[in-house]
Structures are given as C-alpha cells and as structure tokens.
Amino acid sequence: MIQWILNLFSTSKQETNSNSMKKFLIVGLGNIGAEYVNTRHNIGFKVLDFLAKKEGIQFETVKLGALAKYSFKGRAFFLLKPNTYMNLSGKAIKYWMDQENIPLENILVITDDLNLSFGTIRIRQKGSDGGHNGLKNTNLVLNTQQYARFRFGISDEFKKGKQVDYVLGDWNDAEQAALPERLEVASEIIKSFGTAGIEITMTTYNGK
C-alpha cells in the first residue's frame, strides 16, 4: 500500500515535470510523396528525419503533418513535417503552435535557399520570405515575420528557366556524399536553438 502511494506521487511528479518542460516547435518544410523524398526542396524534411533516426524516435501521422517528440536537457522538441505541401505550410505551423501552446519565439523553420551555396547555413531571428513559398505562406498565416528560420543552401546551379526542375530535382552525387556531415551540423543547430538560444546559435553556426 505504501509503495503504491509512493509510486502514485512519483508518477504525478513525472507528469508535472513533463508538462512544465519548455517547448519548441521545429518545422522542416517540404512536400509529401515518394517523388519528393530526395529533392533539394525537401531539405527541411531530411534534417528532421536525420535527427529522428539519430535519436531513435518515430514520426506519427497527426493532423496536418507528421510529428515526433524529443526531449533534450529539459526541453521538449516537437519535430513537425507538414503534409499540406510547401505552399500551405503556415496552416500546419499555426495549428501545432496553438495545440501545444508554443510561443512564437520558440519556433524554428527549416528551409532550402537558392541564394546560398550548397550546405551553407544561415540562421536568422526574423526576415522576409526571400521568394520561398513555404515562408511566404507562413508569414501570411502567422501574420508576422518575427520567427526564427534556418536556411540551408542548395546553390543556384541551374540554367535559365530551369529553377523549378532544379529545386525539385534530386541531389547530385557530390551533394549526396556531403550531406551526412551537413545534416549532423543541422541536428546540432536544433539542439542549440532550444538550449543556448537563437543569438548564441547564430554566432556559433552561421556560415559554417
């Protein structure tokens, strides 16, 4: 009887600690479907898949996307891959922000960027959409540009008029070989964002 009571209090304490964890929503932008899995435009999905595999966590199909939950150093990370397609990404982001009561300053959105050379990292606290349709919709739905974004360079090595084919094309052999190291750095950035904060993360990782 005494042990049962002790277990009850122990369980209650664990639930309280879990509920009081500082929460972060990490959103990888991409398109659903097998044809998009290895495309440059899906780097947001690829980063989250890499982290989930590394930490041994699974994505579950949820409303408006796939979600994996990960705890690290007293923080709760919600890894979200929207299933709304790129152009409607904001709908899923807003829903899960509200669902988990996660403040705007604890949101990090991961996207591809044509203006950066392959694998170059640029983290910002806020900013315009830069022509990226996923960010454009997110800005519209959230009615703000004041959220952190992590841009992953995919370069602009395409001929005139071939941008769409390039962005929705697969990584070339050289890029594919270099990706694991870049994805490792990306997973460190996510953890740093939640534990060290955006400013230290920018100082540590921008340009690397």
From TrEMBL:
<keyword id="KW-0963">Cytoplasm</keyword>
<dbReference type="GO" id="GO:0004045">
    <property type="term" value="F:peptidyl-tRNA hydrolase activity"/>
</dbReference>
<dbReference type="Pfam" id="PF01195">
    <property type="entry name" value="Pept_tRNA_hydro"/>
</dbReference>
<comment type="similarity">
    <text>Belongs to the PTH family.</text>
</comment>
<feature type="active site" description="Proton acceptor">
    <location>
        <position position="41"/>
    </location>
</feature>
<comment type="function">
    <text>Hydrolyzes ribosome-free peptidyl-tRNAs (with 1 or more amino acids incorporated), which drop off the ribosome during protein synthesis, or as a result of ribosome stalling.</text>
</comment>
<dbReference type="InterPro" id="IPR018171">
    <property type="entry name" value="Pept_tRNA_hydro_CS"/>
</dbReference>
<keyword id="KW-0820">tRNA-binding</keyword>
<keyword id="KW-0694">RNA-binding</keyword>
<dbReference type="InterPro" id="IPR036416">
    <property type="entry name" value="Pept_tRNA_hydro_sf"/>
</dbReference>
<protein>
    <recommendedName>
        <fullName>Peptidyl-tRNA hydrolase</fullName>
        <ecNumber>3.1.1.29</ecNumber>
    </recommendedName>
</protein>
<feature type="binding site">
    <location>
        <position position="36"/>
    </location>
    <ligand>
        <name>tRNA</name>
    </ligand>
</feature>
<comment type="subunit">
    <text>Monomer.</text>
</comment>
<comment type="function">
    <text>Catalyzes the release of premature peptidyl moieties from peptidyl-tRNA molecules trapped in stalled 50S ribosomal subunits, and thus maintains levels of free tRNAs and 50S ribosomes.</text>
</comment>
<feature type="binding site">
    <location>
        <position position="85"/>
    </location>
    <ligand>
        <name>tRNA</name>
    </ligand>
</feature>
<feature type="site" description="Stabilizes the basic form of H active site to accept a proton">
    <location>
        <position position="112"/>
    </location>
</feature>
<dbReference type="InterPro" id="IPR001328">
    <property type="entry name" value="Pept_tRNA_hydro"/>
</dbReference>
<feature type="binding site">
    <location>
        <position position="87"/>
    </location>
    <ligand>
        <name>tRNA</name>
    </ligand>
</feature>
<keyword id="KW-0378">Hydrolase</keyword>
<feature type="site" description="Discriminates between blocked and unblocked aminoacyl-tRNA">
    <location>
        <position position="31"/>
    </location>
</feature>
<feature type="binding site">
    <location>
        <position position="133"/>
    </location>
    <ligand>
        <name>tRNA</name>
    </ligand>
</feature>
